[in-house]
Write a structure and sequence with these properties.
heterodimer; A: about 140 residues; alpha+beta; 3 helices; B: about 140 residues; 6-stranded mixed beta sheet; 6 strands; about 25% strand
Chain lengths: ~140, ~140
């Protein structure tokens, strides 16, 4: 039985959850998607998060966000991401078996040419979008 | 070595023609100014509640970053840069101004501490990566 650790197939689809408030994605804008949609945060030491569509759907992927925020879900083809020279590594979590990461895009290398180029490349990939849908997790307290 | 906004904009690689905007007609001049006004107005709004701009686990733009962005805006506008297509937080306390024109993509990154950087991509390839510093026109 799949447990989320099996290698990711080139023909799979992956989701990237994007908080609506950020304006990283805005339908009708030219261009609609900001490269910042793929920016690592301080939590992304192992790479930015994706969710494997084989384990989820757009609404469920969005629900992994926080209450009080809504999320767009950007759908990418794995083969397209790999064509950029990036990798996608399974990283199942207790509450998100389809969780995966792009290890090359991490907070430590945020200011490098490699990551800057990768963010721009990802922005230019063909994608589909869904949502916005509400997050359902309890938000953490700000520090 | 850091160079000034004025200095970098004077460089032939970053001239306004490269953006591809002809703002010669009165209508275009008005639209040009209005777009920049909207950017500054949005940034002023950001100062009121930066936390509303990001998810709960991300770092909202610092007030220093927002103020720096508001200082850079008139410098770019006065040099006839078209307004950025996208102005967004960077999730790490900074702000990103994105300028798009065909195969040219410029990103002015303003970090949490107010330091700034200009990235220029041509045809998807990084063409320049420079530190920016607000200073007097050269």
């Amino acid at each position: 039985m799949p447990d989320g650790n099996e290698p990711i197939d080139r023909n799979e689809l992956v989701y990237r959850r994007v908080c609506e408030n950020t304006n990283f994605f805005k339908p009708g804008r030219a261009p609609p998607l900001s490269s910042r949609a793929f920016s690592p945060t301080t939590h992304d030491s192992d790479g930015i998060s994706l969710i494997r569509a084989a384990y989820s759907n757009p609404e469920d992927a969005a629900s992994g966000g926080y209450q009080g925020r809504s999320y767009y879900v950007i759908e990418l083809r794995v083969s397209d991401v790999l064509s950029l020279g990036l990798t996608i590594r399974p990283d199942p979590l207790a509450d998100e078996m389809g969780h995966a990461v792009i290890p090359e895009i991490n907070i430590r290398e945020m200011r490098t040419e490699k990551v800057a180029t990768a963010l721009n490349d990802l922005r230019n990939l063909e994608f589909r979008h869904y949502g916005p849908f509400p997050g359902k997790n309890t938000p953490p307290k700000r520090q | 070595m850091p160079i000034t906004v004025a200095g970098i904009l004077a460089g032939t690689s970053f001239d306004t023609d490269a953006i591809g905007l002809d703002y010669g007609s009165p209508f275009e001049r008005t639209a040009f100014g209005d777009a920049w006004k909207k950017v500054d107005s949005d940034l002023a709004q950001w100062l009121k509640d930066p936390e509303a701009l990001v998810d709960f686990d991300a770092i909202p733009p610092t007030r220093k970053a927002i103020r720096t962005a508001r200082a850079i805006v008139p410098a770019l506008e006065s040099r006839k840069w078209p307004a950025p297509a996208i102005v967004v937080p960077d999730l790490n306390g900074g702000i990103s101004l994105e300028f798009h024109s065909g195969t040219l993509y410029k990103n002015v990154e303003i970090r949490a501490d107010g330091t700034s950087r200009l990235l220029v991509f041509r045809n998807g390839r990084l063409h320049a990566d420079r530190l920016l510093r607000l200073g007097k026109t050269q």
